Amino acid sequence: MLRFILSIMMPLVCLLVTQVVLTTDSLGRGFNVLESNKETAYQIECSLETVKERVGFVFEKGGLSQEKWKEFKQLHWEAESFHHLFVMANLFYEEAPVEPYGRLVELFARDMVQRLVLLDRFCLEIGIEAIPSETI
Fold it and tell me: What residue ranges do the domains of the chain occupy?
């Protein structure tokens, strides 16, 4: 479980903490600029696809009840939705680095991480490793 959470959260933490730099415009006013976040978004997207494939395989083999499958689909949909909102907020913020967009990035990132943790707990509960340890 910890490996999956770290593989998702570490790039996100890097994005939200170490890659947020304070710069100034020509008038000397400060504003936050997010640097390269496309790789983080791509890693999260790949992780969501991996989780979907692994849980789908378990379901096809009869390892999951219909109720658990519906629970997974709901969790996955929520995580995917917040991932898309996170990506859109980043695009807006890159286009116009003003505080309302920066706040949206922060909010959607937090919500997305919460859903990813729930998804990881679900995977642990059904006994699968969401991300193979050899890829970490």
Answer: 2-24+38-135
